[in-house]
Amino acid sequence: MSIYDYEIKTIRGEEQSLAPYKGKVMLIVNTATGCGFAPQFKGLQKLHDAYKDQGFAVLGFPCSQFANQEKESNDEIAQACELNFGVNFPLHAKINVNGSEAHPLFKHLTNEARGVLGSKSIKWNFTKFLVDREGNVVKRFGSTDEPEKIEGHIRKLLES
């Protein structure tokens, strides 16, 4: 199954696939507005703004599996992201990223790009997956990897 075949819900509840992102470089991130890493939203938005016209997109997937650090409703999440962090990159409905209830997209991502010591599970909020223009998951970045540190990897994929 191609990454573009996965069905996702927007933050507004609309069903869609990742097909509109075919041919683009994507940075897919599990987010949480109440997390200590939430200031990364600003860096993610900066990357999105800098490279969106070159075929790049940040995709945020709110998750509450780590210390319940995400708001209850998708409307509250969207509002907090916009008001507190100026986010206008695509946000999606709140999902699970680990366990039997993990969204199929994240099962795919964690299978394709493993974490420390080959682990599949995501350890915390703001784990990032870099996907090339062909839909290949090329690299996984941890929560402590600041968006600015990923910029070189993004530029490289955009230039190839």
UniProtKB/TrEMBL annotation:
Alphabetical GO biological process terms: cellular response to oxidative stress
CDD domains, per database record: GSH_Peroxidase
Name of this protein: Glutathione peroxidase
PROSITE patterns: GLUTATHIONE_PEROXID_1 (PS00460), GLUTATHIONE_PEROXID_3 (PS51355)
One Pfam family matching this protein: GSHPx
Assigned keywords, A-Z: Oxidoreductase, Peroxidase
GO molecular function: peroxidase activity
Family: Belongs to the glutathione peroxidase family.
UniProt-annotated catalytic positions: 35
The species this protein was found in: Paenibacillus soyae
